[in-house]
Amino acid sequence: MDEEEVRKEGEKVLEELSRALEEIDLAETYYVVDEINVTRGDAKGRIDEEFKLILKRNAPRLDEDGSFVMEVGKWVE
């Protein structure tokens, strides 16, 4: 693709995006909540094996004890 084709393709994409955005309702909605800090009551946690399996599948790394190895985000200095 040469520079002119890239420019025309970019203009086409922007035009389509602009048309699509015209259909979006931008009205803001405000919610009033009586309780600011909503917490659950203290109770014994339940062990859900299916949740553990899903969590382990999504974990980047586990150590030899099965604990999650976490990394600081690259955007954090």
Write structural notes for this entry:
This protein is mainly alpha-helical. It has a domain at 3-43. Helix content is 39%, strand content 0%. The longest helix has 20 residues, at 3-22.
Provide key terms for this protein.
single chain, flat, 77 residues, mainly alpha
Secondary structure: elements and pairs:
Blueprint: H1 3-22, H2 49-58
Task: Provide a quick synopsis of the model.
With 77 residues, this protein is mainly alpha-helical. The chain has helices spanning 3-22, 49-58.
Mean pLDDT: 82
How many angstroms separate the termini?
39 Å
The main pleated sheet reads as:
none
Give the SSE string.
Answer: HH
Would you tell me the structural class of the helices and strands? mainly alpha
How many DSSP H or I helices? 2
Percent in strands: under 5%
What is the approximate shape?
flat
Report the count of strand segments: 0
* Uncertain parts: none
Helical percentage: 25-40%
Q: What integer value in Å does the Rg equal?
A: 24 Å
